[in-house]
């Protein structure tokens, strides 16, 4: 791990790319990103308000402002002949800021007093390497031992990156993308085993040598992690963030760098390789994602499958149409069709499907089997019958032979909405479930990372008696404020911003007063987590992103992709909304 850091040379590509437009790289696959955010708010009143924008003002005169009782957003006419021009023109242009940098935001919001405090805390978390900001530290809590909270985590940095992009500060995001790309090229070994070339680090830190007066980067690819598990999600978040940067700034030159193109191909090679799998989903070990401890998510966890789907769709928009790129594009398209069908058919649970599983026959042996995974109806947990509303549904935690994990996982379901892995009907059903199960999933502090918690014998067997993951704590039913940004993005995309507004208002009653904890404990999320770090950066950034996205829903464009109409599933079941 002593390989010196060498900056990727971006200058050599700038001359040839300086005249490249976003359409040159995105248009060949534009059908994968047709956006329809016409329902950002329900029943908006329309006002015409002039606004200065720093990028692509060709259709601003056609846009209008929709005001809800407390918040505002622009309404877009999906039937307009210039609909896609309208959407492009409002996608978070570079140089534009929102937040506390002005007395009032550009469309007349009174910023919450917490916003200024949050920005100050976020800037204090910046990590510098050779004079340039390259990320944000996980937490600035000096009351506890550092462990690895003094490092820059790939997954943790995503909400920070989105906050800076929304605030018109893309340079730190660009620096982070290039530095982690350089780390990817390092040799990666755990004991005597070498990891795949495309593996991205879980985290890195900057080491200062006062004697030699220099700085070096040290990366962790899983060799220092609890359980020694490589981070499967890091590569996916990297691709998603690269697309967010490109969408936000309109700068395609970064994604077009040969180094970035190669980095994407290496990540995709790990995921698209052929083996013994009979499913299009990715087989993973426990602890390979946000839930980085033993929690029974081994197999085919929803978080990884949703991120995998999202990363594949982002890669389609970023890969160049050269010989190498075309080969991967063909493989991606095939995988997306198989993955979307598999997830929508077998991971989806609503009242109708729950009743079908309850009545499953077992030991079926033929191509016409209904119970394809030989799931035993007696394995259905009692809680799921009370949890499932009449109108609502969600993607369950895991599906594998003779095993279905019926737990609700917030991150995977929100990413399913943002990536359009969930159909519009399924997205609506997920939001219906959140509203119906508000006390269980939101309670007194948003948002449950999973539901319900494991207890007693189940907790002992599945977690190995993990003292950090006791019932209703940490990953085992704990409440994580960082998930606010994902919930808000999903709410905006589905036209249900009032749900996000309600959750944010709950969080605002305590987050600052409690000094931005990492997570909360208890069935309702009432108590600061027993091992929760204070000044947790992604709690801070998640709040800021949620606030800015409600203020200006056009920011959604950098993190959401609309449904690919070519991947419409052949539905064989009645979903709950047809009951």
TrEMBL record:
The organism's place on the tree of life at top rank: Eukaryota
InterPro entries per UniProt: 6-hairpin_glycosidase_sf (IPR008928), 6hp_glycosidase-like_sf (IPR012341), Glyco_hydro_100 (IPR024746)
An individual GO BP term: sucrose catabolic process
Pfam families: Glyco_hydro_100
One annotated GO molecular function: sucrose alpha-glucosidase activity
Protein EC: 3.2.1.26
Keyword annotations: Carbohydrate metabolism, Glycosidase, Hydrolase
Reactions the enzyme catalyzes: Hydrolysis of terminal non-reducing beta-D-fructofuranoside residues in beta-D-fructofuranosides
Function text: Invertase that cleaves sucrose into glucose and fructose.
PANTHER family: ALKALINE_NEUTRAL INVERTASE B-RELATED, PTHR31916
Similarity comment: Belongs to the glycosyl hydrolase 100 family.
Name listed for the protein in its UniProt record: Alkaline/neutral invertase
């Amino acid at each position: 791990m002593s390989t010196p850091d060498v900056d990727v040379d971006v200058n050599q590509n700038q001359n040839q790319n300086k005249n490249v437009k976003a359409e040159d790289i995105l248009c060949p696959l534009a059908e994968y990103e047709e956006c329809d955010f016409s329902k950002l708010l329900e029943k908006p009143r329309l006002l015409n308000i002039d606004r200065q924008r720093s990028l692509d003002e060709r259709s601003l005169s056609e846009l209008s402002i929709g005001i809800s009782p407390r918040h505002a957003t622009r309404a877009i006419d999906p039937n307009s002949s210039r609909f896609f021009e309208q959407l492009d023109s409002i996608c978070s242009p570079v140089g534009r800021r929102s937040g506390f940098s002005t007395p009032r935001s550009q469309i007349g919001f009174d910023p919450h007093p917490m916003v200024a405090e949050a920005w100050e805390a976020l800037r204090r978390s910046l990590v510098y390497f050779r004079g340039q900001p390259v990320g944000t530290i996980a937490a600035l809590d000096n009351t506890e031992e550092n462990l690895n909270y003094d490092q820059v985590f790939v997954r943790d940095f995503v909400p920070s990156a989105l906050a800076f992009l929304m605030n018109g500060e893309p340079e730190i995001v660009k620096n982070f993308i290039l530095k982690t790309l350089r780390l990817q090229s390092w040799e990666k070994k755990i004991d005597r085993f070498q990891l795949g070339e495309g593996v991205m680090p879980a985290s890195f830190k900057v080491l200062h040598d006062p004697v030699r007066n220099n700085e070096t980067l040290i990366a962790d690819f899983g060799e220092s992690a609890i359980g020694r598990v490589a981070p499967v999600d890091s590569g996916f978040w990297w691709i998603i963030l690269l697309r967010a940067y490109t969408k936000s700034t309109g700068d395609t030159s970064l994604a077009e760098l040969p180094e970035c193109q190669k980095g994407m191909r290496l990540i995709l090679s790990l995921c698209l390789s052929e083996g013994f799998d009979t499913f299009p989903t990715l087989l993973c070990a426990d602890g390979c994602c946000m839930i980085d401890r033993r929690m029974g998510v081994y197999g085919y966890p929803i978080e990884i499958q949703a991120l995998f789907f999202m990363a594949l769709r982002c890669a389609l928009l970023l890969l160049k149409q050269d010989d190498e790129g075309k080969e991967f594009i063909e493989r991606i398209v095939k995988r997306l069709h198989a993955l979307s069908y598999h997830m929508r058919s077998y991971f989806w649970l609503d009242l109708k499907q729950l009743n079908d599983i309850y009545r499953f026959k077992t030991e079926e042996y033929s191509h016409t089997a209904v119970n394809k995974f030989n799931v035993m109806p007696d394995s259905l947990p009692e809680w799921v019958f009370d949890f499932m509303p009449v109108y609502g549904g969600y993607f369950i935690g895991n599906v594998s032979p003779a095993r279905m994990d019926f737990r609700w996982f917030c991150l995977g379901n929100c990413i399913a909405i943002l990536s359009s892995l969930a159909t519009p009907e399924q997205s609506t059903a997920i939001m219906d479930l959140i509203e119906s199960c508000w006390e269980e999933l939101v309670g007194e502090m948003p948002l449950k990372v999973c539901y319900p918690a494991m207890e007693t014998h189940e907790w002992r067997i599945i977690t190995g008696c993990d003292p950090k993951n006791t019932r209703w704590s940490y990953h085992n039913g704990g409440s994580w404020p960082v998930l606010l940004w994902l919930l808000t993005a999903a709410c905006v995309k589905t036209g249900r911003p009032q749900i996000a507004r309600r959750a944010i208002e709950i969080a605002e009653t305590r987050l600052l007063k409690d000094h931005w904890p990492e997570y909360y404990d208890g069935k309702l999320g009432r108590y600061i987590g027993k091992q929760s770090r204070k000044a947790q950066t992604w709690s801070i950034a998640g709040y800021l992103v949620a606030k800015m996205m409600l203020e200006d829903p056009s920011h959604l464009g950098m993190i959401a992709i609309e449904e690919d109409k070519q991947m419409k599933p052949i539905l064989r079941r009645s979903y709950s909304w047809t009951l």
